[in-house]
């Protein structure tokens, strides 16, 4: 198995087991139901989040890197009888515009929009949303930032909260730590103007993952697996979905919502009206 394929397979493990083998009935059709939710930790958390967010009237963008994940999430929304729109690289321009207009209509009842991260990061304006869920993350943080900015455009009047779902003690978690460390280094280098070599040429950047680094990440997973603490607690989830409390805590600097627990931690962002939360599943 090549390095690229190995990384993709590990990412699929973190997202949903049906990416490998879906359950079929006797006629060969894919079976959907509650087991679709219970099979993946991320979907269990997202299901609980959506229930509370939609009841509170929030409009939600759900991003994934993989169209196959969007297929599974689409099956989930149909099972829960939640109306939605979907946009990926295969969506025609006219259908794309129609979906955006329908979603942004304040008098409409559409509350969920499924998007592929890369397709949803260009030429999309979804200011009708006030919530973003990153079901899985791009190893390049700028791609995720571009995607979540779709609802933080000119005309946005609401505070936007971003939830990133992460599988605890996993390859995905370690890769995100690595990506965030590089992003921090990038900020330091750019702020100091240290982005050129002594000869004046642009300094090379090494963003690809080597086999040695991958083996190190997998070894770390083995070592920390026994220390797993479990996912986010129900009371924490309820607190994070309570928008007034969240905004008071991180905009008005109250202490209603802790910045970090075993189940989540808050990520500082450059945009003053965007708040990010990474949630472990």
Automatic annotation (TrEMBL):
Q: Name one GO cellular component term.
A: chromatin
Q: Where is the Helicase C-terminal domain?
A: 45-196
Q: Where is the signal peptide?
A: none
Q: Which UniProt keywords apply?
A: Hydrolase, Nucleus
The record's annotation in SMART domains points to: HELICc
Q: Does the keyword Phosphoprotein apply?
A: no
GO molecular function annotations of the record: ATP hydrolysis activity; ATP-dependent chromatin remodeler activity; chromatin binding; DNA binding; histone binding
PANTHER family xrefs: CHROMODOMAIN-HELICASE-DNA-BINDING PROTEIN 3-RELATED, CHROMODOMAIN-HELICASE-DNA-BINDING PROTEIN 3-RELATED-RELATED
- Provide the protein name: Helicase C-terminal domain-containing protein
| Naturally occurring in which organism (per UniProt) | Aphanomyces astaci (Crayfish plague agent)
């Amino acid at each position: 198995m090549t390095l690229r394929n190995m990384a993709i397979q590990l990412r699929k493990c973190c997202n949903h087991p049906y990416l490998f083998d879906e359950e079929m009935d006797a006629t060969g059709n894919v079976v959907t139901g509650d087991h679709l939710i219970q099979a993946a930790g991320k979907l269990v958390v997202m299901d609980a989040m959506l229930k509370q967010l939609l009841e509170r009237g929030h409009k939600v963008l759900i991003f994934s890197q993989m169209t196959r994940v969007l297929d599974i999430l689409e099956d989930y929304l149909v099972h829960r009888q939640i109306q939605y729109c979907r946009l990926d690289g295969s969506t025609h321009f006219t259908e794309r515009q129609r979906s955006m207009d329908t979603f942004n209509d304040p008098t409409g009842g559409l509350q969920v929009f499924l998007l592929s991260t890369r397709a949803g990061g260009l030429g999309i304006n979804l200011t009708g949303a006030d919530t973003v869920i990153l079901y899985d993350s791009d190893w390049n943080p700028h791609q995720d930032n571009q995607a979540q900015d779709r609802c933080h455009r000119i005309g946005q009047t609401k505070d936007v909260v971003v939830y990133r779902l992460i599988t605890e003690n996993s390859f995905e978690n370690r890769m995100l730590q690595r990506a965030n460390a590089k992003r921090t280094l990038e900020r330091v280098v750019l702020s100091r103007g240290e982005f050129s070599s002594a000869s004046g040429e642009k300094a090379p950047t090494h963003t690809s993952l080597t086999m040695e680094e991958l083996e190190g990440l997998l070894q770390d997973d083995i070592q920390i697996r026994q220390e797993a603490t479990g996912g986010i607690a129900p009371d924490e989830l309820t607190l994070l979905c309570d928008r007034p409390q969240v905004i008071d805590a991180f905009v008005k600097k109250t202490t209603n919502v802790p910045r970090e627990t075993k189940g989540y931690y808050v990520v500082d962002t450059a945009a003053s009206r965007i708040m990010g939360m990474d949630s472990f599943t």
